[in-house]
Amino acid sequence: MERINFDIQVEEIKMGEKDAFVYRLKNSNGMEVELTNYGAILSKILVPDR
User: Fold this and answer.
1) Model's pTM, two decimal places?
2) Edge-to-edge, what's the strand order for the sheet holding 42-46?
């Protein structure tokens, strides 16, 4: 099985008067997912074209 490396970044942001976090997950194949803990919103998925 191929091992895939990934990177996780967390950024704190303001949503009105509340604090929220944006989580960015990116693997070595170029797939990227971005979501927030503010209502469990999946805000972006990037997948490279083959």
Assistant:
1) 0.70
2) 6-15, 18-27, 32-36, 42-46
